[in-house]
Amino acid sequence: MRQRTGFYIPIALLCLTAQSLFAGHALAPEYTCTYIQTTREDVFYIHSPGINYTGHFRAGSFRIYVSSSILLPLWGRQDRHNFYNPKYYAHYVGTDLFMGLTRDLPIISRHDVTPVLGWHISGIRLRGKSEFMDFYSLTMGFGLKLMTRYQGSWNYINCAFLSFSYDYIDLLYKNNKLKRGHTISLGFGRSF
Fold this sequence. Notes:
Elements: H1 2-21, E1 22-38, E2 43-59, E3 62-71, E4 75-78, E5 81-84, H2 85-88, E6 89-102, E7 105-108, E8 111-128, E9 135-151, E10 156-170, E11 178-187, E12 190-191
Antiparallel strand pairs: 1-2, 1-11, 1-12, 2-3, 2-4, 3-6, 4-5, 6-8, 7-8, 8-9, 9-10, 10-11
């Protein structure tokens, strides 16, 4: 019995510490546009609706910001040709991760602007139907995210967010690597 109690006490202390550092979280629908240019001058635009989760953790006068999205890449454009992904791909999914430091800046009564500067990772997986090739992308870089928040009677409501990321590291390919990539996301949601 003592061994089990000794095991649970550090876990409980860790959870209490994490709870005291936790500043809030939010869920929002979003739209993301991903631009990819490879070293062979192939150009891709991928348009994705998605769901975004954001968490904030206190770190002194700043906060650690973590934003994660699950994307559904439905439309694309490759070398000036538009296409609807479900027509060519059996499975299509994407993810977007943004981590950085932030601090609320009050602008007017009950309105805050929250700029976030940090690292960005973007992943897209399009699995082609039998007669089409697969498309995979996993890129990393840095970005800036701006969030406006309105303080209602109960809690903060995220009015809107806009992020821009510049990716320059290709995590998958050695040939025909990423030359540069951009990701733009915007959404509207609520804290809870």
